[in-house]
């Protein structure tokens, strides 16, 4: 895709407030077994179909299954997540779009029904979870200190988007771990990958807040990979005989990114993620994956791909990074 709208995000004034973009973040302090810090990060995509296919009691529509390989990957993620014993799950999601700045949900007990606007017949999910308010407020504070425009959402009753709920359900359907949820500043949808650099700052601020509050945190980047999908679906949405990549180019782009993920180190992804966005309209353009790796300090490790599969033609991978 051509970089038609590639321009520097924000005004000159807001750019001056922002931390320098290319300055490497200080190395994160290594989390000890019982100390705080980021203990793992996961690429945790949120296609509503995966929740629909599971038939959890919280979701109204019923299915006969489907997309099993991706769901087996999530089963493995859940097993590993429990072993990490996190105090909190911190999720960045592309469908909580905020026009100005980076918002953090500070509502203690979000409750409601989350609906997927394009696939409401697949995802009408009743949620009721706890927020780690101290950490949420600390992220707002650290982001502002780093020069970002940040805002705490403190208004009860605002509907939580399906990308936040989908990733959280798929990672932890028991909902027994407190959550902090971050919005996606929507500039990426206007400015190609120009806002990815700002995710470096948001990632470093997230880590500073986690260390300041002493939490053991697992991070979730709620992103699909290649992001073109069909505009029609089969009569039975879970009919796997028609599930396939959008085209060879999209599939090959995803495989190239995952090759770099599996080889490591993560610093190679600083170039590979923008290249993948150019090639495939990747949903990582919304910044969740870059935020996650920046928060982890771009560790010198490989990621482990737990599963890859398409959902209505989009590419989706479940990936784990555990800092050594
Ligand atoms: O938001 C999504 C997505 N990322 C992928 C597939 C289908 C629907 O919604
Ligand atoms: Fe999405």
TrEMBL record:
Region (Disordered): 1-39
Coiled-coil residues: none
A UniProt-annotated Pfam family: LigB
Domain Extradiol ring-cleavage dioxygenase class III enzyme subunit B: 42-315
Alphabetized InterPro entries for the sequence: Xdiol_dOase_suB
Record's protein name: Extradiol ring-cleavage dioxygenase class III enzyme subunit B domain-containing protein
């Amino acid at each position: 895709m051509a970089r038609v709208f590639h321009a520097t995000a924000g005004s000159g004034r807001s750019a001056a407030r922002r931390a320098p973009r290319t300055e490497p973040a200080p190395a994160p302090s290594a989390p000890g077994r019982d100390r705080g810090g980021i203990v793992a990060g996961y690429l945790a995509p949120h296609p509503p179909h995966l929740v629909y296919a599971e038939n959890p009691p919280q979701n109204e529509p019923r299915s006969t299954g489907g997309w099993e390989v991706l769901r087996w990957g999530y089963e493995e993620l859940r097993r590993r997540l429990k072993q990490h014993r996190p105090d909190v799950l911190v999720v960045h999601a592309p469908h909580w779009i905020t026009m100005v700045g980076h918002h953090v949900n500070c509502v203690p007990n979000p409750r409601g029904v989350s609906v997927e606007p394009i696939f409401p017949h697949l995802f009408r999910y009743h949620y009721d979870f706890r927020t780690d308010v101290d950490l949420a407020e600390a992220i707002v504070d650290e982001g502002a200190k780093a020069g970002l425009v940040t805002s705490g959402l403190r208004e009860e009753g605002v509907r939580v988007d399906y990308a936040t709920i989908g990733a959280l359900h798929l990672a932890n359907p028991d909902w027994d771990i407190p959550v902090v949820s971050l919005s996606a500043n929507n500039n990426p949808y206007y400015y190609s990958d120009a806002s990815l650099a700002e995710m470096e700052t948001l990632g470093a601020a997230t880590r500073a807040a986690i260390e300041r509050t002493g939490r053991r945190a697992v991070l979730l980047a709620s992103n699909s990979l290649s992001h073109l999908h069909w505009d029609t679906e089969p009569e039975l949405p879970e009919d796997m005989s028609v599930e396939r990549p959008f085209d060879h180019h999209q599939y090959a782009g995803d495989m190239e990114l995952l090759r770099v993920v599996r080889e490591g180190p993560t610093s190679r992804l600083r170039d590979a993620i923008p290249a993948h966005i150019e090639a495939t309209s990747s949903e990582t353009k919304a910044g969740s994956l870059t935020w996650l790796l920046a928060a982890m300090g771009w560790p010198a490790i490989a990621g482990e791909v737990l599963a890859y599969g398409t959902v209505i033609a989009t590419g989706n991978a479940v990936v784990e990074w555990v800092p050594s």
